[in-house]
Amino acid sequence: MTAQVSSPTGQPMDATQNDVLAQVRNHIGHLTLNRPAGLNAITLDMVRSLHRQLDAWARDPQVHAVVLRGAGEKAFCAGGDIRSLYDSYTSGDTLHETFFVEEYALDLAIHHYRKPVLALMDGFVLGGGMGLVQGADLRVVTERSRLAMPEVAIGYFPDVGGSYFLPRIPGELGIYLGVSGVQIRAADALYCGLADWYLESARLAELDQRLDSLVWHDTPLKDLQGLLARLGVQHLPDAPLQTLRPAIDHFFALADVPGIVEQLRTVTVADSHAWALTTADLLETRSPLAMGVTLEMLRRGRQLSLEQCFALELHLDRQWFERGDLIEGVRALLIDKDKNPRWNPPTVQALDAERVASFFSGFDQSGS
């Protein structure tokens, strides 16, 4: 859903439509998330603007493809505007409920979009930003790209389709990314299949120029792929996760989060002990409940369709503000900023498997 960012003071969720810029050039619909001061964190109004514009372009025979990007040089999108959702819940409003329903519908629409979507993932691509790009046909990263599903850091779980795309990464890499919330760079994004092309950020302007002069043929997707093949590459050397893969596949295939943390501290796999200890320390700062629910969600997601994954995430969402750790995580990191969340339970060792399982109760009847 989100990174640890908040909107400027007083920024309402129904911000002006200038928060999403739309333009058609050379049969390409360009959509720009235009809140650079807030790292392009998405609001409900932006979700609605994006969905309306995509629907209109889907029906327009003069539009052959869509390009998604973020304004500024720091972020494509650092997630949902979590501060506004926190305010909605604590004031007894229903905005936080509406937001997830409409955000997931937008993400699903991008996955199923009938025209090719090119996502320029320059800068931070976190939480809700990942939800926007992972349904795109062509996902471009740069040397500035930082990708993550960091929700467990604020007591939440990786939603926006994370239950679908994370467990489909080879081995246990996606489980590791979801349970730990770590950021990865371009080489790892390509290695994991979370991006398709690498392009230096300095060449993004050239890409725009070539898109403006692109000669279209019968298959727009092939035209775009041919252009990217002339400008970018699909593999980068020295992906850190490739080196760590044996260790990650061992530890993150274990039965539960307490077992993962225990073995990270006591078992050495390959030449990864320093990484394992650092990872154990990191996990012990995250919400134990969020990590437990994330692990179960991702493993279930491996067997579910895309639509079922979004339904499962909504099933969890409807309980999470009341029963999960999100409100406390936002309080500690964004409101009071004491950076000392009082998780429930407070430790990984105290995590109760039955409590984790209770969040999934009734899903077969209500969600799939």
What's the helix and strand layout?
Elements: E1 20-25, E2 28-33, H1 44-59, E3 65-70, E4 75-77, H2 82-90, H3 95-111, E5 117-121, E6 124-126, H4 128-133, E7 138-141, E8 146-148, H5 162-165, H6 173-180, H7 186-192, E9 197-198, H8 204-212, H9 220-231, H10 240-251, H11 257-266, H12 273-283, H13 288-301, H14 306-323, H15 326-335, H16 353-358, H17 363-366
Parallel strand pairs: 2-3, 3-5, 4-6, 5-7, 6-8, 7-9
Antiparallel strand pairs: 1-2
Helix pairs in contact: 1-3, 3-14, 6-13, 11-12
* Share of helix, binned: 40-55%
Number of strand elements: 9
SS-based class: alpha/beta
Number of domains: 2
The overall average pLDDT, rounded, is 94
Question: How many DSSP helices?
Answer: 17
- The quaternary state of the protein chains shown equals single chain
Largest sheet: 6 strands, mixed
Can you tell me the residue ranges where pLDDT is under 50 for at least 5 consecutive residues?
Answer: 3-16
Q: Main sheet: which strands, in order across?
A: 1-2-3-5-7-9
CATH class of the largest domain: Alpha Beta
